[in-house]
Write a structure and sequence with these properties.
Helices cover 40% and strands 14% of the residues. It has 243 residues and is α/β, with parallel strands linked by helices. The chain has one domain: Glycerol-3-phosphate (1)-acyltransferase. A seven-stranded mixed beta sheet has the order 1-7-6-2-5-3-4, sandwiched between helices. The longest helix is centred in the last third of the chain and has 29 residues. It is globular.
């Protein structure tokens, strides 16, 4: 019964956010602050899933210059956890098929996010070049999930290099954002589903890398994020053991 009630409430809330957000974003069409605003609205739904979410930021995070944020992409619960970490004047990059999701697709488009055609490698590469130009032209930061798909409990998947090419091309840092593991954490028939920690790490300078060493850049960021996710998971496990 609790599960059914939760699903009904969450669906109603999501539809309302999408409808209100779409109308608002069509009025302020593709305003670069739209994405963070409604990402934070979705993040406020986390209590409906019985989750407690803690957000951690490095010093001066609100004053970071233009950059590319990279996050770990786990499952649909990312919408109510790591989405809160999206900063103002940040847009995300998503696959073209997102626009066909009822209600959400219009919101995703109207808020100013950028679509990418993953099936066409040439177009995808051109999109990364376009991203690099837009970062400076429109004074934007970009949010990307470099795994390219949800990990669904398989750990941090290998990174695609697009985000790192764009960072090198634009001459901006990469800022990793990690979320503790949520795979199989949520039971909708259970009132309390534990704690989640989302943490933004300090910027990583891209100027020490080049197109020839972009894979080294991706691997360095992958290893750093993997280690930090393990650290967060260990912290949560220790807290649960103490309680």
């Amino acid at each position: 019964m609790l599960k059914i009630l939760r699903i009904i409430i969450v669906v109603i809330c999501c539809i309302l956010i999408c409808v209100i957000g779409s109308i608002y974003s069509l009025i302020r069409f593709k305003n670069p602050n739209n994405v963070a605003l409604f990402a934070h609205w979705f993040a406020r739904l986390h209590p409906l899933f019985g989750l407690k979410v803690e957000y951690r930021y490095p010093d001066g995070a609100d004053k970071f210059e233009r950059c590319i944020y990279i996050g770990n992409h786990q499952n649909n619960y990312d919408m109510v956890t790591i989405s809160h970490m999206v900063m103002p004047r940040t847009v995300s990059v998503g696959k073209k098929s997102l626009i066909w999701i009822p209600f959400f697709g219009v919101l995703y488009w109207a808020t100013g996010n950028i679509f990418i055609d993953r099936e066409n490698r040439n177009k995808a590469h051109n999109t990364m070049t376009t991203l690099a130009k837009r970062i400076h032209k429109d004074n934007l930061s970009i949010w990307m999930f470099p795994e390219g798909t949800r990990s669904r409990g398989r750990g941090l998947l290998p990174f695609k290099t697009g985000a790192f090419y764009a960072a090198i091309e634009a001459g901006v840092p990469v800022v990793p954002v990690v979320c503790s593991s949520t795979h199989k954490q949520v039971n909708l028939n259970r009132w309390h589903n534990g704690k989640v920690i989302c943490e933004m790490l300090p910027p990583i300078d891209s100027s020490q890398y080049s197109r020839e060493t972009v894979r080294d850049f991706a691997k360095y960021c992958h290893d750093l994020m993997e280690q930090h996710i393990a650290k967060l998971d260990a912290e949560i496990a220790a807290d649960q053991h103490q309680s």
